[in-house]
Each structure stands twice: as C-alpha cells, then as structure tokens.
TrEMBL record:
Pfam families linked: zf-RVT (PF13966)
Organism for this UniProt entry: Acorus calamus (Sweet flag)
Keyword list, A-Z: Membrane, Transmembrane, Transmembrane helix
Superkingdom of this protein's organism: Eukaryota
Membrane keyword on record: yes
InterPro entries given in the database record: RVT-Znf
TM annotation in the entry: 63-86
Domain annotation Reverse transcriptase zinc-binding: ranges: 319-383
Keyword Transmembrane helix belongs to the record: yes
Protein name: Reverse transcriptase zinc-binding domain-containing protein
Length: 384
C-alpha cells in the first residue's frame, strides 16, 4: 500500500522484478532462464526475415559473423551466460550456418562447432566463440578494477565484498552470499591473473609468490620446492623486504629450515634471481600491465585471443592461409575449406549419416565417392 501511495505521488507505476534498465534485465538474485528469452527472440526474429536456404555457405558465414555473433554482446558485457542459454543460442547459429533455416528436415552439420570457431590461421572459420567472448568482455571489468580503484562502481563492490587493500587482498571475496553480478565478473579473477604482470612501485599490493613480477612466471612456479615451505603464500613484495640501515635484504618466512640439497639449491637460485631487485622500489602504487601484449596493452580483442589460447589448439587443416589469402569469392573459400576438411556431402559421407549401400562414384563408378577421390583420384577429374 505504501508503494502504491508513493507511485501516485510521483506519477509512476509499480512493477515487479525483473525490470529493464538501459536494456539490461534488473532482478533480485541471479537471472533465470526465461529472463534471457528476449535475447533468444531477437535471434529468432532476425532469422525469420532471412532466406537462408537461398544463400551459399559464404553468404551465411558473412551474416553469422556480422550479425548473429554481435547480437548478444551487449548482454555478455555484464552478465555471465549460463550453459543452457548458450546452448540455445549456439543451436540457432549452427542451424543457420549448415541448414539456412530453423524449420524443415535436419541437415548434417559438416564440421563440429569447436572447429568452426577456431581462428582461420588455426584451420577454422573464425566464428566468434561466445563463451570465450563472454569471458573476454567480463575481463574488461577485471582490468578496470585494477586501475579504477576510486570509481563509484569499484567502491560499491569494495565496501560490500572487500578487495583493493593491502596484504594481497586485491580481488573481492566472492562467497556463497555474493550477488550473481559479482560472481559473474570476478569468478575468473584467478585465471585472469596469469595475464597480468606487475611493475613494482611500493610493493604493497603485488604478491611476492603468486603474482608475475620477477620473470615471466610467478615465483611459486619457478621455485616449487621453496614455495612448498612458505608460511604465508600471500605475502606482498614489500613485506618480504627487510630494511637494514641504508639498504635491506629479502626474507621470506618458512615453516622449517632447509635440509635437502635440492631445496638449498632452489633457495640459492631464488636469491640470485632477486639480487637485481634489491632496493629497486619505486614511488606510488604497483602498476599492472597486460603481459601477452605489453606494447598494445589490454583490449577486448587481445583478451579474447588470450582466452582462446588458454585451451589446446590443434591445426584443423594444413596450410589454411593458402585458402583465405586467395582473391576469390568467399563461397569458394568455404568450399575449399570443406574440401580440406574432407567434409563435402559425398555419397560416402551421406551413407554414414543416413545409411545406404550406394557409395560408388557417380562419375566413374570405380571407387567409393569421397572428397579425395572426386578431386584427385577419379580418372575424369585427372583428365580435367
């Protein structure tokens, strides 16, 4: 009743959650599956107006990359997409590429989707992988968190969940009671740290063992035996420097003394590595740098490439640059790509998909009809 009275006073209406603010669904708790329906419906409306069956693979690929891959980016910038919603969107994208329509008889998806989403130089079609793009877009907030400590949005998270303090509490504490927005943004912070290299200022934020600041790897990865004996693995660089007179020395608290020769050898190697850093403290706060491309700095594109490279990448076909560097129509390039993958709809491929015994070449009838036979072994092809 009080809400209705206040609404009449200010001249507005009372609505329940979720509500849309600047295009984003605002609700209590995490977004439900049905809260993503407007995004899925946008895909369906776009697809309904396209005559995909009349387009070549090259035309569908152009629309897929230019339109269908761009539709969800506004949402992915803020929210972490769930597996169920991602499957619904990816199903629409896959069907459009291989079938051209969402209705009618199903057609074979000639190449698995993970290969299609590989970069062209790795043997794929360069289609945007939405899961990794979601992580790359959310990484922008992680990067801003490291730089914009005084922004209102950062202070809001800091006041509620912590972080930005000393003693290595850089990231907010994402517990069970944290909001879905906080969980979505900061759940990848541990992996994101692998791409951040710290330039030491006062050394009050950079963690001595687990951050990348001395070399290309954290010290915990370079000196495993010594790290196993550390009492506090989250010590900062500043806390590990003991001031003595006009200088100082490095000191890290260990749980026990060094006994094994291997441990003593690693401890000496660690001391040699740190010797160049003795007293090399700057002025001001520690500064994060984007390690994969220090000169270019952090961009969403660079972040997406880094997330894609985290997983194992195998070349899907040999010498893909020979296909994509040619000045020929895109539909011909896609055809040559399918030929290199041996995924053309030959009689042998159709028999595996639908069954049937008629797999002989329809031109010469001398061997099973495969992509290699049609374009290389068939005597009619050789005559051409």
């Amino acid at each position: 009743m009080a809400g209705q009275a206040l609404a009449r006073t200010v001249g507005c209406t009372v609505r329940g959650f979720p509500v849309r603010v600047l295009g984003f669904p605002l609700c209590r708790g995490r977004l439900k599956k049905e809260d993503w329906d407007p995004l899925v419906e946008r895909f369906q409306r776009r697809l309904a107006g396209w005559k995909g069956k009349l387009l070549s693979y090259g035309g569908r690929l152009t629309l897929l990359q230019a339109v269908l891959s761009a539709l969800p980016l506004f949402f992915l910038l803020v929210f972490r997409i769930s597996v169920g919603v991602l499957d619904r969107i990816e199903t629409l994208r896959r069907r459009f590429l291989w079938q051209g329509t969402q209705e009618g008889t199903a057609k074979p998806h000639l190449v698995k989707w993970s290969t299609v989403c590989l970069r062209k130089e790795d043997g794929g079609l360069g289609v945007l992988d939405l899961r990794d793009m979601n992580r790359a877009l959310l990484s922008k907030w992680l990067w801003r968190w490291l730089h914009e400590t005084d922004n209102p949005w950062a202070r809001t998270f800091q006041d509620r969940y912590g972080g930005h303090g000393t003693n290595a509490r850089i990231w907010p504490t994402v517990g069970a009671r944290a909001s879905s927005l906080c969980k979505g943004i900061f759940s990848d912070s541990a992996e994101f740290e692998q791409a951040v290299r710290w330039e030491i200022g006062m050394g009050e934020v950079t963690r001595f063992w687990t951050d990348v600041w001395c070399g290309d790897q954290p010290l915990c990865a370079q000196f495993l035996l010594v790290y196993a004996l550390v009492r506090d693995p989250l010590e900062t660089v500043r806390n590990c420097w003991t001031v003595e007179g006009s200088g100082g020395r490095w000191s890290a608290a260990l749980r026990r003394n060094i006994f094994a020769p291997e441990e003593a050898s690693q401890l000496q190697a660690l001391a040699d590595r740190l010797r160049e850093w003795e007293g090399q403290f700057g002025v001001g706060a520690d500064r994060p740098r984007w390690a994969p491309k220090p000169n270019a700095g952090f961009t969403v594109r660079n972040s997406y490439i880094w997330w894609r490279d985290l997983g194992p990448v195998t070349l899907a076909c040999g010498n893909p640059e020979k296909i994509w560097s040619q000045k020929i129509p895109r539909k011909i390039k896609v055809f040559l790509w399918l030929l290199a993958q041996e995924r053309l709809l030959t009689r042998t491929y159709r028999s595996k998909w639908r069954g049937g015994d008629d797999v002989q070449c329809g031109i010469c009838g001398a061997a099973p009809e495969t992509a290699i036979h049609l374009f290389g072994e068939c005597r009619w092809a050789q005559a051409l």
